[in-house]
């Protein structure tokens, strides 16, 4: 059992989907949490308060926009000023856009690279000095099966996720002697708003119905024919935070129903 009492975890993009599952799972193990992400202010406050009441920990919300480096540094400062440390950083915020390369909007490319890749660099850059000072740390990046293989029409996403895998390995080597690990988790398809939102564009890009996109495009890639759950991804992250995972670093851990084994 992994216990995180007295530790602080910052989870980007945790107002929804996988990020919210990470936040709730680490809170369940006793960590104080900084949640972050976009969305309806009342809904975010409800989730924040629920983490505190369900798990008897402290939880603060950072509205940092992951396209803005200064706000990302501010999120790390907020964690330190609220709880005195940043022990765990989970870089998870992400968006998707699906279009053929020749029609891919330039602003969508820039946004995906900023949110899905560069934000992790800015967060790690700000958090590593605090982890070194504390002599302990865990950095977990949400990559994707798309950090290992490609799918058509997802040029920016696949580029960003391959980048996350490289950043993970580089940081792992740099911090290896400081009792700080850096790993990425590569889920296959997890049923979250991010997946649901890309269905209409995939229907358009490939000329398919919704059922065809779910069964013939999404689950077609996954030999188990089942979606991964957010809670399963979060359980792996919790394991990576524990002492039994102290020698796992620089790893890209697949949880994809066999997708990338094919
Ligand atoms: P989601 O849409 O449910 O959650 C995305 C989160 O990122 C939300 O909290 C959102 O508010 C936040 N976010 C988006 N733009 C932001 C910005 N500019 N600043 C701050 N926060 C921002 O999606 P999800 O499926 O839970 O995705 C989470 C991560 O998991 C992403 O990195 C995604 O690429 C990755 N992933 C998802 C799947 C899947 O099938 N759902 C598979 C592999 C990897």
Q: What spatial form do the alpha-carbon principal axes imply?
A: globular
Run of helices and strands: EHEHEHEHEHEHHHE
CATH superfamily, called what?
Answer: NAD(P)-binding Rossmann-like Domain
Widest sheet: strand ordering: 3-2-1-4-5-6-7
Count all strands and give the number: 7
Please give the domain count: 1
Helix/strand/pairing category:
alpha/beta
The largest β sheet comes out as: 7 strands, parallel
Q: First CA to last CA: what distance? A: 33 Å
Task: Write down the overall mean pLDDT.
Answer: 97
Compute the CA-based radius of gyration: 18 Å
Small-molecule binders = nicotinamide-adenine-dinucleotide
Report on this structure.
The protein has helices at residues 17-28, 41-55, 69-83, 106-134, 155-175, 193-206, 210-218, 230-241; strands spanning 8-11, 32-36, 59-62, 88-91, 137-142, 180-187, 252-255. The two termini are 33 Å apart. The chain is 48% helix and 13% strand. The chain has one domain (8-190, 229-261): NAD(P)-binding Rossmann-like Domain (Rossmann fold). The chain is of the alpha/beta class. Bound molecules: nicotinamide-adenine-dinucleotide (NAD). Residues 13-19, 36-39, 65-67, 92-95, 115-116, 142, 144, 187, 189-190, 192-195 line the site of nicotinamide-adenine-dinucleotide.
């Amino acid at each position: 059992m992994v216990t995180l009492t007295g530790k602080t975890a910052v989870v980007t993009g945790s107002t929804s989907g996988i990020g919210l599952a990470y936040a709730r799972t680490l809170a369940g193990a006793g960590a104080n949490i900084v949640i972050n992400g976009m969305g309806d202010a009342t809904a975010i406050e409800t989730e924040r308060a629920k983490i505190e009441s369900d798990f008897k920990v402290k939880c603060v919300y950072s509205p940092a926009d992951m396209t803005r480096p200064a706000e990302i540094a501010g999120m790390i400062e907020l964690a330190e000023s609220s709880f005195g440390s940043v022990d765990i950083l989970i870089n998870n915020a992400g968006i998707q856009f699906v279009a053929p390369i020749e029609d891919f909007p330039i602003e969508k490319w820039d946004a995906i690279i900023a949110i899905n890749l560069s934000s992790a660099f800015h967060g790690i850059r700000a958090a590593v000095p605090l982890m070194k000072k504390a002599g302990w740390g865990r950095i977990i990046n949400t990559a994707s099966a798309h950090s290992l293989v490609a799918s058509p029409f997802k040029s920016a996403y696949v580029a960003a996720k391959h980048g996350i895998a490289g950043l993970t390995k580089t940081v792992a080597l740099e911090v290896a002697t400081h009792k700080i690990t850096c790993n990425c988790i590569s889920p296959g398809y997890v049923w979250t708003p991010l997946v649901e939102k890309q269905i209409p564009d995939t229907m358009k890009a490939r000329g398919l119905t919704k059922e065809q996109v779910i069964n013939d495009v999404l689950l077609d890639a996954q030999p188990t024919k089942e979606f991964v759950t957010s809670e399963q991804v979060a359980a792996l992250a919790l394991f990576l935070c524990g002492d039994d995972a102290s020698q796992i670093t620089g790893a890209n851990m697949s949880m994809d129903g066999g997708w990338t084994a094919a």
